[in-house]
Specification:
- By secondary structure, this protein is α+β, with helices and mostly antiparallel strands.
- It folds into two domains: 1-29, no CATH class; 31-137, no CATH class.
- It has two helices and nine strands.
- The chain has helices spanning 51-60, 66-79; strands at 10-13, 16-19, 25-26, 33-38, 44-49, 91-96, 99-108, 113-122, 135-137.
- The protein is elongated, with a radius of gyration of 18 Å.
Length: 143
C-alpha cells in the first residue's frame, strides 16, 4: 500500500494507519467473502462471511471448510421458510457444535439481493461488540 506522497512506511495510530512522511491517515479496508447460493434453478441468496467471522472460525474450528459454512447458511435460510428478509434486522444466534454463531438475514438495498451475513462465533451467549445489540436466539436444525 502506498500513500499519495509515494511513501510505503506507515505508523499505527489510534487504530488507523498514518503515513510516516506526510501524516495522512489511511483507512484499512477489509473485504468479506461472498458466496452465491442457489435455492433452486431460479432463486438464490448470498452468504457473506465477514473477516471477524472468518477469524473466529479459524480460531474455534480450524478444520471446517467453506462447504460446511455454505450448507449451514442453507439451513439458516430454510429456517425463515421463504419469508423475504427486511432491510433492517436484528442479529440472530443459534447454538452450533457447542458455540454460539451469529448472523443477520437481510435484504441489501445497495446490491439488491438477499444476504445471510455471518458475523461471529463465540463461547458466550453475548456479542462482544461496541454496539449493544439485542440478539434473538433461535433453534435451527443444522444437518
Amino acid at each position: 500500500m502506498k500513500c499519495k506522497c509515494g511513501n510505503e512506511k506507515f505508523m499505527l495510530e489510534w487504530g488507523k494507519l498514518k503515513c510516516a512522511e506526510c501524516g495522512t491517515r489511511q483507512y484499512i479496508r477489509y473485504s468479506a467473502e461472498e458466496h452465491k447460493i442457489m435455492k433452486n434453478e431460479k432463486h438464490y441468496f448470498w452468504a457473506v462471511l465477514t473477516p471477524k467471522f472468518i477469524e473466529a472460525r479459524d480460531k474455534h474450528f480450524p478444520e471446517i471448510e467453506d462447504d460446511v459454512i455454505i450448507n449451514m447458511c442453507k439451513d439458516i435460510e430454510k429456517y425463515y421458510k421463504g419469508k423475504w428478509p427486511k432491510v433492517h434486522c436484528k442479529t440472530t444466534a443459534s447454538k452450533w457444535r457447542g458455540k454460539h454463531i451469529y448472523w443477520r438475514y437481510k435484504f441489501n438495498p445497495h446490491k439488491k439481493r438477499a444476504e445471510v451475513v455471518m458475523s461471529n462465533i463465540t463461547n458466550s451467549d453475548r456479542i462482544q461488540d461496541r454496539r449493544k445489540e439485542e440478539v434473538k436466539f433461535v433453534t435451527v436444525d443444522f444437518k
